[in-house]
Amino acid sequence: QVVESGGGLVQPGGSLRLSCVASGVDFSTNPMAWYRRASPKQRELVASITGGGRTHYADFVKGRFTISRDNTKDTVYLQMTSLGPEDTAEYHCNADLTNGTSRPYDWGQGTQVTVSA
Questions:
Q1: How many whole angstroms separate alpha carbon 113 and alpha carbon 95?
Q2: pLDDT digit string, tens, across residues 55-112
Q3: Measured in whole angstroms, how far is the alpha carbon of residue 56 from the centre of its chain?
Q4: For residues 117 and 11, what is the distance between their CA atoms, to the nearest angstrom?
Q5: Which run of H or of E encompasses 78?
Q6: At residue 76, what are phi and psi to the nearest 5 degrees?
Q7: How would DSSP label each residue in 83-117?
Q8: 25, β-bridge pairs
């Protein structure tokens, strides 16, 4: 399972750091990712990171978000800066489902990010 935290209400231009602790599947070699869903849109991939630390970002967050992981803590992070109202969404982490070698977790509750003045 995964447990996400760190969301909240932030003003436009602000920053947040999300955390996700994973358990039940070997974490260190599992490609991980952050996703977001803003109703009524479908869930979209925000960023991914391999076990070795190679990262990939969706175009809409490049230069603003940074994904990282601490394999000693089974945790993946998402540092978000220059947030705008368009980033308002429920953020989830899971294995990188676009990577054929990943081992998915059960979806967690997610963490809500709201960007508003």
A1: 20
A2: 999 999 999 999 999 999 999 999 999 999 999 999 999 999 999 899 999 999 999 9
A3: 12
A4: 5
A5: strand 75-80
A6: -120, 145
A7: --GGG-EEEEEEE-TTSTT--PPPP---EEEEE--
A8: none
